[in-house]
Amino acid sequence: MKRLLLYVHFNKFNQLSSHVEYQLSQLRSLFSNIVFISNSSLEKLDEDRLKQKYLINDIIYRENIGFDFAAWRDGMTHVGFEELKQYDSVTLMNDTCFGPLWDISDLFNEFEQNPTVDFWGMTNFRATSQFKEHIQSYFLSFSQRVVRSEVFQEFWMRVRNFVDVQDVINHYETQVTTNLVEAGFTYQTVFDTTKEDASHMLHPDFSYYNPTAILTHRVPFIKVKTIDANQHIIPYILQEVDQSTDYPVDLIVSHMSKINYPDFKYLLAHKYIRPLDKVYSNQKKVAVHLHVFYVDLLQEFLSAFEAFSFQYDLFITTDKQEKVDQINAILDTNEKKAQVFVTGNIGRDVFPMLQLKEYLQKYDYVGHFHTKKSKEADFWAGESWRKELIDMLIKPANTILAHLEEKDDLGLVIADIPTFFRYNKIVDAWNEHSMAPLMNELWQKMGMSKAIDFGTFQTFVMSYGTFVWFKYDALKPLFDLNLKQEDIPREPLPQNTILHAIERLLVYVAWNEQYDFRISQNPIPLTPFIDNKLLNERNNLYLKNVGELYHFGSVKGAIKYMIIAPLKASKYIMRRCIEKLKTKA
């Protein structure tokens, strides 16, 4: 069969998502000619890869005006309407769906061999008071009988460049089926939704609101917008896709992490680093930065580094010149080499790392760690925290680097939440919200291209203690800030500072640079009932101890609490009194 595919691509960040490349690879064998019509620009490397892998025959760039229908029109014009008649079928598709979830060659054979089917699609939309029943336009395939008809060619030559997507839906998506049916042609869909019970649905658009039905009826494509629209059940949909299809779920996670925020709950369930069959090749340049404030902990880290089976260059920063001799002595004892820098006691571990920009930018992968202690509660806070971070990011570093090497778009690996923060509600929504203005300010200073307002976030996915593995390019905007000492408060450090903001920004900086992140799981098993107990504690109207004042981040915050708490108590008492009076009445 001589088949033509006109494939429309659009990405608001001018990127080629991995699910598009996979999709084309699965469709390639079905089509003699694939014309890739991009309504957004592509990097030269992405275009070259599509061509070198022979995933497409031709590529057209155009503005995103008229949306898919105008793009398909331009694709037909590019091929030539007379040339279209030479194909046994012409298929129109866009990249607004994931799949194919299953091999679709049988579907083509089934519909093309059925003499009663002139054109077909995946799902149809029921008739409403505004328009008649029609095939949804993310996938449409027309037989040669249809393509050679005047009604088909006239329809496409009349397509205009509407700027409102609703106009496209009203004039084209809902009309292409109607025009062909009125001309005497017949169609079928993989899933005839008109025969399905929709009484339990707010709106009978199965491709959007009912991904369960899509899977049950073995529709080979699931819409991208369906994932966002049904986040409450998507964990189970992804589980079903993983178990019942050959489709790589990671393609969904990767794309959704880039076009929307990367830390939605349903995405986090798939962010854990998992064992790999492949091992790290040891062909990349690796730097390890260790900030040594507590020299007595240096040996612990050097011992942990023994788990590395790869070559790396070690960079050590410290705050005082007198510590350098002690550090060098420990390095000599361990027969380790490192470049040691004195960066001063400003900016904890973060500012020293940023000062190494000239060195770190030459490396492919960077690991950042520091000798973590907590003077207030070192054994149960500082020490447990440090040891767990070592277990999560240093000891499994071989696997982490293998993941960074395997996935081009993986830019950051952080640790899971340390157990101390699952037993104690230290990170709360009020304190996190107070960090948002500073995070927004840094975002603007870095000149980020993606729009985000951290004030709308309840909390942040962050690298606790800023222990992290990263590709330099993923955090390049942070290094390019070129922070100065005067930008950072002196010790003792206040509660919420630019350093705390940076700790929370790492994942989102990588996201802006088109990189995804992964989490290295805490090996200490804790039942989620602990989280349930902690998160469902009712806030008391009084402070249990003076230490809780630190949750407010400042004297101003504590004073605010002293005012708000009595007001809330008074309001509660008033409401209860009114309720009792009403009951007695």
What would you note in describing this structure?
With 585 residues, this protein is α/β, with parallel strands linked by helices. It is built from 26 helices and 17 strands. Strands 1, 2, 3, 4, 6, 7, 8 and 9 form an eight-stranded mixed beta sheet that branches. The protein has a seven-stranded mixed beta sheet with strand order 13-12-11-14-16-15-17, with helices on both faces. α22 (429-445) packs across α24. The protein starts with a strand and ends with a helix.
List keywords for this structure.
26 helices; eight-stranded mixed beta sheet; alpha/beta; about 575 residues; 17 strands; seven-stranded mixed beta sheet
Spell out the blueprint of helices and strands.
Layout: E1 3-9, H1 18-27, E2 33-38, H2 44-52, E3 58-61, H3 67-79, H4 81-84, E4 89-94, E5 97-98, H5 105-112, E6 119-125, E7 134-135, E8 139-143, H6 144-147, H7 150-157, H8 165-182, E9 187-191, H9 206-209, H10 211-216, E10 222-223, H11 224-229, H12 234-244, H13 249-259, H14 265-268, E11 286-291, H15 298-305, E12 313-318, H16 322-333, E13 339-342, H17 350-355, H18 357-360, E14 365-370, H19 378-394, H20 397-406, E15 410-415, H21 420-423, H22 429-445, E16 468-471, H23 476-480, H24 498-512, E17 516-520, H25 528-535, H26 555-584
The residue-averaged pLDDT reads 91
**Per the principal axes of the C-alpha atoms, what is the gross shape?**
elongated
Helix content: 40-55%
Number of strands: 17
Low-confidence stretches: 541-554
Number of H/I helices:
26
From the alpha carbons, calculate the radius of gyration and give it in angstroms. Answer: 29 Å
**What amount of the residues lies in strands?**
5-15%
Based on the structure, what is the oligomeric state of the protein chains? single chain
Largest sheet: 8 strands, mixed
Distance between the termini: 83 Å
Structural class: alpha/beta
